[in-house]
Amino acid sequence: MDARQRALAYADCCGRYLDAFEATPAPDAESLMRSRYTAFVRERADYLLATWHASHRPAQLDLDAGMRWLGLQVKDRKQIDAEHAEVEFVARQRDASGRAHRLHERSRFVREGGRWYYLDGTLH
Prior knowledge:
Blueprint: H1 10-19, H2 29-41, H3 45-50, E1 68-81, E2 84-94, E3 100-112, E4 115-123
Antiparallel strand pairs: 1-2, 2-3, 3-4
Helix pairs in contact: 1-2
């Protein structure tokens, strides 16, 4: 969540995508990226794997239970064409030892069958 924006309730933001994945796909790449951030916060590996494109999806995903996510800032979004988009973001986190980290990534997304998927990303 960008610090300059008002926080939305879980159900109004990403909950509808996480809790009703089959019926309610994220409408665009940015919404999917935001919902994936929320899935990391809530340790929802099932959602993360389901929204990862099959060509890049890991067999399993082990989340660090000691990780505390502190915030999300979307820096840029680009619709390349009807089936491809990119979202640049910075996510802040603190590990179990208390050390702070920033994840700055330009993520690539692809739409197949009317549903957006995370493809991969480039770290900055």
